[in-house]
What we know:
Blueprint lengths: L4 E10 L3 E16 L3 E16 L2 E2 L3 E20 L5 H6 L4 E23 L2 E23 L2 E2 L10 E10 L2 H6 L6
Antiparallel strand pairs: 1-2, 2-3, 3-5, 4-5, 5-6, 6-7, 7-8, 7-9
Amino acid sequence: xxxxxxxxxxxxxxxxxxxxxxxxxxxxxxxxxxxxxxxxxxxxxxxxxxxxxxxxxxxxxxxxxxxxxxxxxxxxxxxxxxxxxxxxxxxxxxxxxxxxxxxxxxxxxxxxxxxxxxxxxxxxxxxxxxxxxxxxxxxxxxxxxxxxxxxxxxxxxxxxxxxxxxxxxxxxxxxxxxxx
Length: 180
């Protein structure tokens, strides 16, 4: 299945070549129903990445990066009928929620294109292609207890990420040490 996500992040450029990135990505909820039950899958990742600029021109940066982070998936399955608080308290088997957490490895290549304001890079449009894989954890739990027999799951696979942003915001806040 293809999933869509939305998030935010920041990049700090150290010197002329090094990049540190921070990202939060939220998986858009996917709801399915078969008429009797509905299920909902949602999730998120938080990561830090390290990159090295391999191609640089006045308006362009290209850099591979490697990142590590945490992922979190939630699966909710409920009876699709209308129910009340009392109904759920009397019959908790009408639904369940399970979650999975794991350590995620992210490898990618980022391409950034900047608009210039004088000699300063300001607005940024970028695209990143990468691959994520779960490297540790990845077990299902419900109410803090491990659930056996769950499927192997994670936010693993190839992705394309489109970035829009403002460059030099860190310079405006913290001064010239973030400038290039």
